[in-house]
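#lab-general

N.A. 3:47 PM
ok so I finally got the sequence cleaned up, no stray characters, all 230 residues accounted for. can someone with queue access submit it? mine expired

B.Y. 3:52 PM
send it over

N.A. 3:53 PM
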Amino acid sequence: MKVSTAITGKDSGGRGNLTDQAYEHVRGAILQGDLPVGTILAESSIADQLGISKTPVRQALQLLRTEGLLEVGPRRQLVVREFSVDHRNEILRIREALEEIAVETACRVMSLEEIDVLRLTIMRQRRAADAHAEGAFLVLDEEFHILIAAGAKLPMVARLLDQMRGFARLMRLGRSQPPEHLQDIVVEHTRIVDALESRDVDSALAALHAHLHHWDYLLAPTEAAGADAG
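B.Y. 4:20 PM
back already:
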């Protein structure tokens, strides 16, 4: 999801656009695993890659630090953040609280047209699952949850969920999902949408909780072994 000036606080001038460019470049590389955990980010190298000055790169890196994807290393350099078990559990709890707010509100205010968009997203997920296109499937998974918050007319919740889903994707890196897991997610998403369309808050929240706690695909395999998923 494109980060807007409302999120970053950047203006629409040239420097803001260059900061956007650097932000999207580095964030995308982190979330795709091209910049692994612990990677030191050098402003000059990134500026050379993009053909821009170091100032917008510095601004972009500070935004990513504020977002939580970067942290200050032992030598004061910015590095790609590593998530401890405590950090991961905190993210899961925040994510669940945000999604509860979104689903409960969406039951009351989400339009049928917006619900149709959710069903279209599920259809695309099913096709991605059938094709074993896990990367495309997970992007659609992120879109699905953010669309609910957007349909609930909760832009701040949508932005926070976007940030949480970025963390989730980073924590999933290197862990492949079995095909049946992807199909299960399609079924669980369908139950959530059915309840939204019926305006049944209790059923929608129950379907959401079952979905979040069925598979904990955010935790690393060694940490998730023997644990329930979410």
